[in-house]
Amino acid sequence: LAGGIILGVALWLRHDSQTTNILYLQLGDKQAPNTFYVGIYILIAVGAVMMFVGFLGCYGAIQESQCLLGTFFTCLVILFACEVAAGIWGFVNKDQIAKDVKQFYDQAFQQALMAESETNNGKAVVKTFHETLDCCGPDNAIGAITPLWRDDLCPKKDSFLKNFMEFSNCHKKIDELFSGKLYLIGIAAIVVAVIMIFEMILSMVLCCGIRNSSVY
User: Which cysteine pairs are covalently linked by disulfides here (predicted)?
Assistant: First the structure.
């Protein structure tokens, strides 16, 4: 059940419309940074393996098989080690993910303003960011006045005043998007780790109990 929940959360994060709209973008030959998906794929793998391993442990307990329970314990140790490694990697890279996406946005924004060529898709990339995150412009002076002089790049509001007042800068929105998603991944990882610790303890207790049983 825990594996199924983790798998469900991971698949939801993987197919969330906000992140997929942004991370599937391409600026010329350059793909949007998708480091964020590494953590998601790890969660998907952990959830799927947990479901299989859970079945193995359940069957081993019903059959009172030391071999199956020992295999279950070994698989849990390996999964736990992988999750700890992934957690350390995520903690180290948590700020880098948003930073890379902001740099990609800034490059697209610069190209959209310069209108370098007809084939340049910077404008389309920037408009996707603006419409997906309901923001307009980077975190600087040019970004602050973008809704006024480049309303073709920003989502339309009802009035000129709303166009100027209601937009947040996109750097702030990118930070909020990824910090929120990474927070969910962190909660899911902690829940899985706690469940795994209990599973390892109980499987060893059961395995020792079967070994010491007079029946065997």
Answer: 135-170, 136-154
